[in-house]
Design goal:
Length: about 45
Amino acid sequence: MNATPTKVKAKRPSKGMAKHIRQVKQEARRNSVPGTIVKKSKRPATK
């Protein structure tokens, strides 16, 4: 009964994570431009 574990295909990260990374990169790009004040947008807290 000692079956060797078959390789499981790695799951892709969720689309939400991709969206988050894109926003972080955009913000970093905006911050790198001197003389611009960036207003941080807060997402509504969900419970």
